[in-house]
Amino acid sequence: MTYFPEEVVEHIFDFLGSHRDRNTVSTVCKAWYQVERLSRQNVFVGNCYAIRPERVMARFPRMKSLSVKGKPHFADFNLVPYDWGGYALPWIEAAARSCAGLEELRLKRMVVTDDGLELLARSFPNFKSLVLVSCDGFSTDGLAAIATYCRGLRELDLQENEVDDHGRQWLNCFPDSCTSLISLNFACLKGEVNTGSLERLVARSPNLRSLKLNRAISVESLNKILARAPHLVDLGTGSFTVDHRAEAYHRLMNSFPKCKSLRSLSGFWDASPRCLKALYPVCINLTVLNLSYAPAIPGDDLIKLICHCFKLQKLWVLDCIGDKGLAVVASTCKELQELRVFPSDIYGAGNTSVTEEGLVAVSSGCPKLNSVLYFCYQMTNSALIAVAKNCPHFIRFRLCILDPGKPDPLTNLPLDEGFGAIVRSCKNLRRLSLSGLLTDQVFLYIGMHAKCLEMLSIAFAGNSDKGMIYVLDGCKNLRKLEIRDCPFGDGALLKDVAKYETMRSLWMSSCEVTLGGCKALAAKMPRLNVEIINESDDFEESKENLVDVHKVEKIYVYRSVAGPRNDAPEFVWTL
Amino acid sequence: MEDLTSREDACPQLLDLIPNERYWLMVQDAGGGRGSRGIGRLDASEEKKLELRLGLPGEVEEERKPSVLSLGFFSKTPKTTSINPCHGAKRGVFEEVESNSEGSQQQQEEGGFFQLQSRAVSEKKWSLKTYQQQSLEREEAHVAPGNPTGPSTNSQTRTTSLPVVGWPPIRSFRKNLASSSVKQSVEHENGNIEAKAKAENNNKGWLVKINMDGIPIGRKVDLKACDSYEKLSLAVQDLFLGLLEAQKDTCASAPRKDEEAKQAFTGLLDGSGEYTLVYEDNEGDRMLVGDVPWEMFLSTVKRLRVLKSSDLSALRLGAVCRKRAATDC
């Protein structure tokens, strides 16, 4: 029962930013549900198979922005077979039928096709923004369609997609009348583009603030582009290497000082230390710096750059930076919130890598640090305890020790205590990835303390079902749990089956779960899709021969109101 | 059940981490911890083997398959691994482990090396365990007490890369980053792997040693300054012209000397001249300069040499030609 007229309720709902809050108010009563659904403009679907597209469109007819996610996270690491699913077309088709006012589409880990892109381009006259993250299945032809038909396009942001290269003409397809671009990111494209077209496009886009070029763009082109777009705030360079005696080099040195608005830099493929000098004039204003594609920059040159970046908030680097470089980060970047250190040479001897010292230094020097992704070859409990003490505000803590199951080298003990300290100290921790030698004890700690935890990634850890049970039991806000190569079996899987309906998804691969366990789960919980992914060639025959005690290689369990999906490939068996 | 066949042993410091001198082929503990590990039974040569290998002490060489480190563990005492009959479990390195271990429980009890899991999961042999054990063993063997840091200790142990599917958890395009831009060749020389890689990638200039027959002093040529074989040939001439002149007959007049000397450097690349330019590649082989595309040459050349064409013996040439043929296909 509402005491206010609907318009007022709607107005109040406008202040609710997050979709979670809106989801909550819509469950209060029927009236509020109606008001909310008719006024919701931004719709987020965390799992494309949790609900049918048509239902979403029907519920939110005034939808302007749609975000959909497809494949499970471990698809990023090739653990999910190529054609597992996550197709965007049904969503585009449903939207085309029912929500012609769509302005923005954001897809992550989905299979998008050229047909889908063309349908998208033709169906929504007000379409403004397309963001594709970690998607695949399309080519530059699809991009050509977007460029051609989306009048008034403001944003085309392609992040880390696998795009087939069918030529460079797609960029030419932006009509001369297209002057509305604010953001263009084609960094992930492998092929060349027509640089003349690009320069002209940039020249006629006065609102362009974010431009991320791909590796095929040379420094010569970059110079010309920067000359046309001095108001850029966010730049992704192309190939950042040129002979220091060439004229292009000198132009490069002079290009950046003019870009007074530049706050964010990325790209730097093939970057050479000499070329990096071009950035010195803009360092002091940078808030975001991504050097993680530049393996040829040694630590000392990185240091020369970073020691000027006082305002840096987000830094992505390779481990060539070394502990020494991280110490410089710690003493310079007092505003740092997010740090990612990627491995530069995963097959190597770790000579160029960072150790626990670097992480401790940054945790000590950067009081605002709240998000870390750190690849290293070793970690100690004492370091983790120190980090936990220094940074109680972590929201995301992802540590990857490159040797699976590696203990603390000082003590030879598992890293249970170290991670335990992290979860105890960081009360707002939402995302955690574990690595190193870990027993059930660490999961006890996680279950006890990580009350805000939403996403947990586990690999090569634990001793028994107890580990997983601690987590499922204790982490009340858990939404995504992904596990690989751990000794968790049916006992853990079936301990609390209702829990999975409170979560988005569960992934388990190379664990001890059996077919019988999966069947039991599916039988008890009809509103869960229990998918078994089996990639062996003789799956079909072996299906008959499968006995319940057989272990399943990969399972993906997710709540859904859509029932079993109808686009599952042969190797996916929904129980 | 413990193996009580340990004997007193004067263990070298490395292994004194563990006070109980028990045979380290030990067995599980009930608790979640690792249980105690034994060391014992290692004389100097066996210990040496342990240092360098990742298998059990006293393990036979042949049984170790470099690509599957964990296999080394199983050569003596095949473990039971839960075999997944329903599919050829694609676990990368673990696949071989499973296929090899028809193992019986008894053998495991007999001499399985230390287990890390509790009895609750006693029957399963986890590929995970092999990693944990492996890394623990490595740590024991290689970490001297009181040596806290140093990825270098670990680097010694990482003799081969572990091709676990989906590990480390980074996107594929990041995995190829180093190799695609740095063109790393296998480095035999230690130290300065970084420097070499840098040098190969930089536009700063790349100096490669070059020697010439008959001239005791070697030079260095900047390969990046030459963008083609022709330029390289000219650069070689520049470097050695003066030195060659100095060696020749001093009676001749200056201009004539010049001419003659220059003459020496024609036909460096095609075998027609007095001298021929060859190089040593990253595999240590001697190659004729000019066969492969310039970029490819840059990525494999390690040093250069100017040989007297007459010295290119049939044998050497044969070897060069064979290698050429090999690289052609």
UniProtKB/TrEMBL annotation, chain A:
The keyword Nucleus applies. SMART domains: LRR_CC. GO terms for cellular component: nucleus; SCF ubiquitin ligase complex. One of its GO terms (biological process) is SCF-dependent proteasomal ubiquitin-dependent protein catabolic process. Pfam families: F-box_5, Transp_inhibit. It comes from Canna indica (Indian-shot). Residues 3-42 form the COI1 F-box domain. It is found in: Nucleus. It comes from the Eukaryota. The keyword Ribonucleoprotein does not apply. Pathway: Protein modification; protein ubiquitination. This is Transport inhibitor response 1-like protein Os04g0395600. InterPro entries: COI1_F-box, Leu-rich_rpt_Cys-con_subtyp, LRR_dom_sf, Transp_inhibit. One of its GO terms (molecular function) is auxin binding. SUPFAM superfamilies: RNI-like. Keywords: Auxin signaling pathway, Nucleus, Ubl conjugation pathway. Residues 61-107 form the Transport inhibitor response domain. Part of a SCF (SKP1-cullin-F-box) protein ligase complex. May interact with auxin and auxin-responsive proteins. PANTHER family: F-BOX/TPR REPEAT PROTEIN POF3, PROTEIN AUXIN SIGNALING F-BOX 3.
UniProtKB/TrEMBL annotation, chain B:
SUPFAM superfamilies: CAD & PB1 domains. The keyword Cytoplasm does not apply. InterPro entries: AUX/IAA_dom, AUX_IAA, PB1-like. One of its GO terms (biological process) is regulation of DNA-templated transcription. Residues 149-162 have a biased composition (Polar residues). The keyword NAD does not apply. Residues 205-309 form the PB1 domain. Keywords: Auxin signaling pathway, Nucleus, Repressor, Transcription, Transcription regulation. GO terms for cellular component: nucleus. It is found in: Nucleus. Residues 132-165 are annotated as: Disordered. Belongs to the Aux/IAA family. Homodimers and heterodimers. Aux/IAA proteins are short-lived transcriptional factors that function as repressors of early auxin response genes at low auxin concentrations. This is Auxin-responsive protein. It comes from Canna indica. The lineage of its organism: Eukaryota, Viridiplantae, Streptophyta, Embryophyta, Tracheophyta.
